[in-house]
Amino acid sequence: MRQRNRFVTGAAALLLWMALGGMPGESMGEDQPAAVNTFNRLMKPKSERNLPPPQDGIHDPANPGTGLLQPPKEAFANMEPLSAGNYVNWVESLKKKRITPRYDRLDPNAEAVVFDLDIVREVKGSMPDVVYPHDRHTQWLDCSNCHPDIFVPEKGKNQISMAQILMGQKCGVCHGKVAFPVSECRLCHSKKKGAAPAAAAAPASQEDAAKAAPKRAK
Amino acid sequence: MNTLSKKTWRTGVALLLLSSLCVLESQPAQAEYGDVVINNQSDAAGMRPAIFPHWFHRIRFRCKVCHADLGFKFKAGGNQISMLKIIDGEFCGACHNGEVAWSVENCDVCHSGKPGTPTQVHGNTVQKLIGGGADKPAEKKQ
Q1: How many alpha carbons fall within 13 Å on the CB side of residue A11?
Q2: Could you report the predicted ipTM of this complex, rounded to two decimals?
Q3: Which residues span the domain enclosing A27?
Q4: Under CATH, which architecture does the B36-130 domain have?
Q5: Do A51 and B30 touch (CB under 8 A)?
Q6: Cβ of residue A169 closer than 8 Å to a chain B Cβ
Q7: Sheet containing B36-38, strands listed edge to edge, beginning at the edge strand earlier in sequence
Q8: Residue A3 CB contacts under 8 Å (≥ 6 apart), including other chains
Q9: What residues does A102 pair with on adjacent strands?
Q10: What is the pLDDT of residues B17-39, one digit of tens each?
Q11: What is the rounded CA–CA span in Å between residue B124 and residue B134?
Q12: If pLDDT is split at 50, 70 and 90, which confidence band does A27 have?
C-alpha cells in the first residue's frame, strides 16, 4: 500500500515535471515576470510542433476551409523523425518508402532520374568537410533546378559561405526554407578532415561524373 | 486508500490546469515549416491570403514536378500567380483542375490565411534571424 502510494506520487511528480518542461517559454506575457527565465526559452517544445492549421497562427480559424485541412501530425505519423524543420526526415522517409511522391505530375509510375555523385567540399574552418550527395538531391529535384543559376556546374567555380546560406542564397535557397535548416550542421559537414576516403563514402572522381552523366540524357 | 485517491485527484487537477494553461496561452505564429503565404493580391482583393502547405504536396510530389516541370520559381511571391492563370491551367491550375486535384471552386481551402499575413516562407532562417518575409526581410519587417 505504502509502496504503491510512493509510486503514484513519483509518477505524478514526473508528469508534473514533464508538463512544466512543455511550458511555452516565448508565449509568456510581460505580466508574468517569473516566466521570463524558463528553461530553453527559444526552443519550441514538442507540444508546439506540427500544430493543426486552426491553431498554427497563420491559418484563419474563422475560415470554413481551414477545418478541411489535414493536421501535419497525422500525415507525419509514420515518417522518419528529425530534430528540426518539419521534424520529419524527408530523405529517409522516401528511402524507406513511407511516402511515394510522384516524379511526374500525371504518371504515378515514373521513376526518378538519379545522378549518383558525391562532391566533397573542403571547408576553411574547423568543421568537418562537406559532402554534397547528388543522389539524394536528384531523388527530388531536376538538374535545372540548381544548375546553372544557383550553382555553376564546374569545380571551384562556386564560392559558398554559411553567411550566404543563412541569408537564403546557394544551399539556403532550400535549406532553411523547406529542406532541413542549418541547425543540422552534421548532415552536411559529415566528412572528417584529412580522413582517408573510405570505400563507402569515397568522393567520386570526375571520371565517375562522366560515366554517370549519360544517364541524365532524356 | 482514501489519502491515495485524494492525492491522485489533486495531482490530476493540477496537471489539467497546467496543460490547459499551455494550450490557452496566445501563441506567435507556429505554422508548419515551409508553409508559403502568398499575399501578392489577396488582401487588396478582399480575399484571405493563400497558404501553400509544402509538406502536404511534398508527400505527393517530388520538388521537381512543380519547380522544374511547372516552372515555379524558388521565391515566395515571385511567381506572379493569378486566378486567371490558375483557371487557364498554369501554376496551381496544372493539377487543381478537377482532374489531378480538386478544382478552383474550393476558394477557402487555399485562401485560408489570417488577413494581413505578409508573403513569406513560414519559419525560414532569414525570418528567424531578422524577422519579416522570406525574400524581402527588410521591407516586410514587422
Answers
A1: 10
A2: 0.76
A3: 1-48
A4: Alpha-Beta Complex (3.90)
A5: yes
A6: no
A7: B50-52, B36-38, B120-121
A8: none
A9: B61
A10: 545 444 444 446 789 999 999 99
A11: 7
A12: very low
